[in-house]
Automatic annotation (TrEMBL):
This is PLRKT protein. The keyword Membrane applies. It comes from the Eukaryota. Coiled coil: none annotated. Keywords: Membrane, Transmembrane, Transmembrane helix.
Length: 147
């Protein structure tokens, strides 16, 4: 009788452990999916913001280029066109970010850094540990009194 009861408890415990393992795996998968969805939405918003900014900056750049060209012709001084140089770099960067391949190039470079230069990613003094955090918390806490 005791063996049957013990076997039943053991089987029940094993089934419960399998259920908990499957449940925690499902929860982790959902968290990973949610984080990835949030990341994709943030990147989409950044690209959309860049494209919207490009519309306004493109208009400004076009008007500035026309105005500076007219001023250079009127004053017969080509030096008046100098502000177009930095403005054109900003315009080219924004266009590349919004409609070009800048994000793909950045992704490729990030993958290269992760693969070949991972030492650059290390934190100063190494990763944080629980003990270090507790030591800092205790030193800053006004309520915690330790004997």
């Amino acid at each position: 009788m005791g063996f049957v009861f013990s076997k039943s408890v053991s089987d029940s415990l094993k089934a419960q452990q399998e259920f908990m393992l499957m449940n925690s795996r499902l929860q982790l998968e959902r968290q990973l999916l949610m984080q990835n969805q949030m990341r994709e939405r943030q990147i989409a918003m950044q690209i959309a913001w860049t494209r919207e900014f490009l519309k306004y900056f493109g208009t400004f750049f076009g008007l500035a280029a026309v105005g500076l060209t007219a001023g250079a012709i009127k004053k017969k001084n080509p030096g008046v066109l100098l502000p177009i140089v930095p403005l054109s770099f900003i315009f080219a960067y924004q266009y590349d970010m919004g409609y070009g391949t800048l994000l793909q190039r950045m992704k490729g470079e990030a993958e290269n850094i992760l693969d070949t230069q991972s030492t650059l990613l290390e934190l100063p003094k190494g990763p944080l540990t629980y003990e270090e955090l507790e030591k800092i918390r205790r030193s800053q806490s006004k309520f915690f009194i330790e004997k």
